[in-house]
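Worked example 2:
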Amino acid sequence: MTEGFLREFDPVIFPIKLMVIIGADKDYLSGRFVNMETDQDDTSAFDDFEFRTVLVGDRMTNMQKFLVLIDDASLPMDIGYITHEAGHVGTLACKSFNIPIGIEPGEDEFHCYMAGWTARCIKQTLDEYEKEQRENG
């Protein structure tokens, strides 16, 4: 069971934290997290993936989290993938807090705020992971 490299971020303004995990295996993920988007016994979200974003329940804390999964074999992760996954977190946040999102100017502000914040968190995690890999060979 591989835990991988994980970082957790607190958005402060609402109660669901963001967790970014690089290189965790399915056994670890399905043992620690429950998929809140489907049947709680469904572990298919933790099957083969390069990058994936899931709303989960964390069995260690009994809290919901936005979970961004990154397969370490898929690195390096470019800005396109970072923004793609960050956009999913923005959408999940809007859905989780019943915040309407639209296509007219101003109707997507919360979504964009969450996506921007999430992209910075993913980038920070990737930078820390790469630094640790360089230092530990």
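Helices lie at 26-32, 79-96, 109-136. Strands lie at 5-9, 17-22, 33-35, 51-58, 63-70.
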